[in-house]
Amino acid sequence: MPATLAGDFDYDRHGHGYAVQRRTDPRIAAHVHAALGQARTVINVGAGAGSYEPDDRHVVAVEPSAAMRAQRPRHLAPALDATAEHLPFDDDAFDAAMATVTVHQWSDTERGLRELRRVSRGPVVILTFDGDALDLLWLAEYAPELITAERRRYPPIDLIASHVGSRADVLPIAIPIDCVDGFTEAYYARPERFLDPQVRASQSAWGFVDDAAEARAVDTLRRDLDSGVWDDRFGHLREQPEFLGSLRLIVGQP
Prior knowledge:
The chain is of the alpha/beta class. 34% of the residues lie in helices and 15% in strands. It is built from twelve helices and eight strands. The chain has a six-stranded mixed sheet with strand order 2-1-3-4-8-5, sandwiched between helices. The model is unreliable at 1-6 and 8-16 (pLDDT under 50).
């Protein structure tokens, strides 16, 4: 199935090189893996290039984009070509289910979440972002169009929690200053990174911002960095070890 039919962003066209910029951050991974509990068999839905996939359990990965499947490292098993909304597995087939930074891509979020709950006899673990907290990052002042676009994409946290189990915990996850997973908030202390088009290309949010707005945001940020305005206002972040922004871990129990 073409990626354009599987979600709102065409990773087959724009996902090449994604694995270089978007790598597993071990500190964030520790939260995800702990949430899986004692599960020995795990389904990873919307697995992409394999970020956050545990290597000490039996994992079945599901990913509809051929470009993303091709970027999976050799030590991981190949991913199955399928979507969250139509998982080809029996009820309770896995000890746990996981989906990291992907639910906003699905064409039918609620159906996909119900599918995760259906195939897991244990926890359902979702790593995502809270749309209501996206403007905590200074980037909102430079690219308000990006925040507006992202808020339309991210499902409400309460909606996700209501579909992943009879009880769900929502955990804010702090982002380390040297985070190696290149989502937008990962660069809260490294604003210069947003001047790199390859960095922006690995953040699907920019695909929903028109070229003129993106150019305006980048030019304004470059000017403020050169003049010192950014550092006058936000320079304290360069030494702030963590940033508590919009990243959330939702853990649903059966």
